[in-house]
What we know:
By secondary structure, this protein is mainly α. The protein has one domain (3-73). The chain is built from 3 helices and 2 strands, in the order αβαβα. Strands 1-2 form a two-stranded parallel sheet. Strand 1 (28-31), helix 2 (40-48) and strand 2 (52-55) form a beta-alpha-beta unit. The model has no long low-confidence stretch (mean pLDDT 86).
Amino acid sequence: xxxxxxxxxxxxxVAARAAQGVDVAGCIVHSNRGSQFRAxxxxxxxxxxxxxxxxxxxxxxxxxxxxxxxxxLL
Length: 74
């Protein structure tokens, strides 16, 4: 996965919240430790929007458990 996909997804999420009149500054964006989420472009996008990045620990399965459960229900 390229960083531009992660940056575009972040931008889309910020735009969707802005359309609802929600200020995202200060929100925490949690991700795994994928290289796209540590890329300079992604980190710059976080700073640009005033977001705070958060990453899970290596080998912690509980980080993704909620989303895995959600997608299993689809």
